[in-house]
Design brief:
Layout: H1 2-17, E1 21-29, H2 36-43, E2 50-51, H3 53-65, E3 69-78, E4 85-93, E5 97-102, H4 109-119, E6 126-128, H5 131-146, E7 154-159, E8 168-173, E9 180-186, H6 193-204, H7 211-221, H8 223-227, E10 235-243, E11 250-257, E12 263-270, H9 277-284, H10 294-309, E13 317-325, E14 330-338, E15 344-351, H11 358-364, H12 377-388, E16 396-404, E17 409-417
Helix pairs in contact: 4-5, 6-7
Length: about 425
């Protein structure tokens, strides 16, 4: 026991005199994005090697130079067996990590990825977006591309071009992106190519071209034209570009695979318990076995929402989910509703009528206090007053709803101008 204690005292003293002893263990603290193995590798420290304070200082300098840490601390102390040192690396990582994307470069993405993994042990699906790191990556990529006889300058910028608009690091040549001069469609199936060009012309022509953005435009504007015909699996397998001959820009040719026509499979309704399935089906007007028309399905969703609002569910939300079954070429629809609270009719106030003309109007008003509030009723009521000619020389009418979210009621005021 005395010998072990003496060894520990001697080892503690050696830490002060910078005498090397074997490194027995390394612990990493404060890391979240990077693994302990990555950090230890970059530090240069290795288990079993003789180390001193100078080695830990050098490890710290290496980690600081990587540019991915805001703070780095390295410390060491005698190990429990008094035969070596235990080291601790404490890091504080930079906060901003963003995905890296390549565009318009003459080599495949996986080639660049493999190269960057060799250059940067911290390389991963997302990298630190500091100025130091971006400049380092630009230098590496320009070096790599020069070896492939590509000498245009490449820049790395933080951009927001996704949907949803998330930030990313875009690496591309400094030259401006080309614009779309003309669009062509091939293998268009049931829809004439001229119809697609007409629908897409004003949207695409003149826009800056990137394949990613162009595909987003196709999904937003061309895909719906096929989905109303039941072609839910439509694809755009190939997009090619060539320089336009008559104007500056690109001719973009889109090859289409419309796929099979899907039919309606099972239809479910969830969350609309205030209405029976038969009532919901009657409103939806969807029939199992019919070809899918997504516009009709979305109209069914909107009509059911309207029906539930007329029952007092003023804050209703809904979602139309679809499950495609490729083996049967059918689509199961699920209408999911979150009705929210039900509002009732509150007080009715009438402005502009006298003591003789107001009572008949109150008697005609059919939406009784405490009953579910129908937001369509006030306008429909006033329209009927006009159509029936209840008042002569009636100039105009209007109504005002006052919603009380705390009491879940709606007070209505009718205004008459005679």
């Amino acid at each position: 026991m005395k010998m072990a204690l003496a060894a520990l005292v001697a080892l503690s003293a050696s830490a002060q005199t910078d005498r090397p002893y074997p490194l027995e263990r390394i612990t990493v603290e404060g890391n979240h994005h990077y693994t302990a193995a990555q950090i230890i590798s970059v530090s240069g420290l290795k288990i079993g090697q003789p180390v001193s304070k100078a080695d830990f200082d050098a490890a710290r300098d290496r980690l600081v130079a990587s540019g991915v840490f805001e703070n780095v601390g390295c410390s060491f102390a005698p190990a429990k067996d008094a035969k070596g040192y235990d080291g601790v690396i404490e890091v504080s990582e930079v906060q901003a990590f963003l995905p890296l994307r390549f565009e318009d470069l003459p080599v495949a993405d996986d080639q660049l990825t493999a190269f960057l993994k060799q250059k940067d042990p911290f390389f991963g699906p997302s990298i630190a977006s500091t100025k130091q790191i971006l400049e380092r990556y630009m230098a590496w990529i320009n070096e790599f591309l020069a070896g492939h006889d590509f000498h245009d300058k490449v820049v790395a910028r933080v951009v927001s071009e996704n949907h949803p608009p998330d930030l990313e690091i875009l690496v591309r040549p400094v030259t401006p992106r080309p614009s779309v001069a003309q669009v062509k469609f091939t293998n268009t199936g049931d829809i004439p190519a001229t119809q697609l060009v007409k629908a897409f012309y004003s949207i695409a022509v003149g826009s800056i071209y990137t394949e990613r953005q162009f595909r987003i435009l196709l999904d937003s504007n061309i895909r719906p034209l096929y989905e109303v015909r039941g072609c839910l699996a439509v694809k755009f397998p190939k997009i090619t570009t060539t320089p336009a001959t008559d104007v500056k820009g690109l001719v973009v040719t889109v090859d289409i695979d419309q796929g099979a026509v899907y039919k309606i499979g099972k239809i479910d309704y969830e969350g609309a318990s205030s209405m029976s399935r038969a009532q919901l089906a009657k409103i939806a007007k969807l029939t199992e076995g019919e070809p899918v028309n997504m516009e009709v399905a979305k109209t069914a969703q909107a009509n059911i929402e309207k029906a539930l609002r007329r029952l007092g569910y003023l804050q209703i939300k809904s979602e139309l989910k679809r499950k495609m079954r490729d083996e049967t070429k059918t689509v199961d629809f699920t209408f999911e509703f979150d009705p929210g609270p039900q509002y009732s009719m509150g007080e009715l106030s009438i402005v502009g009528l006298d003591i003789e003309t107001e009572p008949p109007i109150r008697k005609m008003w059919g939406l009784l206090e405490g009953k579910p509030f129908n937001p369509d009723y006030p306008k429909r009521f006033l329209d009927r007053i006009k159509e029936d000619g209840v008042f002569e020389n009636l100039k105009n009418t209007r109504f005002e709803n006052k919603v009380d979210d705390a009491k879940l009621k709606v007070d209505v005021t009718l205004y008459f101008n005679k």
